Amino acid sequence: MARGSSSFLSPYLVLPFLMGTTLLGLLTPSVYGEKVDYSGYRIVSVVTEDEAQSDWLDQAVENLGLQLLSEVNLRSLPVDILVPPEKFSLFYGQVHDQGLQVEVNNEDVQMQLDNESSSLRPPMRTGAFDHGTYHDLDSINAIINSVESDFPERVSTSVIGTTYEKRPIRLVQVTSGSNINTTRRGMTRKKNKDIIFFDCGIHAREWVSPATCLWILDKLLFTYGQDKTVTNLLDKYDFYIIPVVNPDGYVYSRTKNRFWRKNRKPFGSLLNCIGVDPNRNFEFKFGTKGTNPYPCSDAYPGPKAFSEEETKAYRDIILKLKDRLKLVVTIHAYSQLWMTPYGYDVIKSKHYDEHMRVSKIAVEAIEKVYGTKFKYGPINTIIYPVGGSSVDWVYEKVGIPMSFALELRDLGRYGFLLPSSEIIPTAKETWAGLAALIEAMN
């Protein structure tokens, strides 16, 4: 489907046009549960300068059945594309003939995946949590259980939903303890503080996102009373964190296909396609720009808004808390972007000036930590169109003015395969930006 198209047709009406092109290219072994071997695959980065070039690249990727790792855009941002060995010469030649800027970022993806696998440490078995590695879902759940046990007056956890594959979607609530009264019957809140809400891991392959949420959780718990910023913020707000919104996809990305993006719900016996992009499944401008009606596409938004257990759980908890929500931030990777509404079109929100003011403060705080530079602005302006996103839904439908989306490190050198050595630096600078944002909010 061409970039920016808003038509939403039944995939069965267009099936004859897909056979032998995009659809067959997308029906990789990962769909059927076999582990994908990326030996000889390359990651190619292409820059387009205008709409004609962007449209050409979008069509070329579709015709060859290639996988986009970052979306085709009009912002002169590199577009990262996963290219199998048998299609590399053809694709590279076509891009070169078009006069586009092109660079090979990774000569053998499987080699990098093997290096990544060797750096993963064994699952956590003690209370100490190692932030220097990407943990599996069992380890993430273990740390959630551990902090609830270790900080009974400050932490409570809940299951807000259950996925298609019957995994719990977990929410962690952190308080300073100053608004908790412990009685024989358990914890009873004295007062309701405003809430700061973070969610991570809505896209399966973005591993640094859950890792960052876990580091922030650790920061809030272990430095309260020592770190002035943490103490002040926790005395004023409660923090609610979903470390992994899409646990089925996250597990699949670790066990079968490292580049899996969607959830794992099957769609269509005829197409044998699996998964919906949860961040296209929200009920605001659903099925419009930045989505694809073909169930095998990474940008498939689902048959209808809130069709997925992950987004229904997200919707229900946000609506339950809406009167207390001060800030909602969804954390993604990669591209180093601090983004605001809107995603669905190039339209300024009524809070645009305030969004720009606090975003500037946030990205300046990030840069002060390690020199990492973030761009900031509305989603549609600085990256690409997105219909049915959580950011727009929270802002427009729930009415929370402070709704943001982050794209963490890096700019594409490693992309989704960000080395584990960069987890802690990424988390530290992200927290610096978030803390500065919260302090700057009116």
From TrEMBL:
Keywords: Carboxypeptidase, Disulfide bond, Hydrolase, Metal-binding, Metalloprotease, Protease, Signal, Virulence, Zinc, Zymogen. SMART domains: Zn_pept. Residues 1-33 form the signal peptide. It comes from the Eukaryota. GO terms for cellular component: extracellular space. Extracellular metalloprotease that contributes to pathogenicity. Belongs to the peptidase M14 family. This is Peptidase M14 domain-containing protein. It comes from Meganyctiphanes norvegica. The lineage of its organism: Eukaryota, Metazoa, Ecdysozoa, Arthropoda, Crustacea.
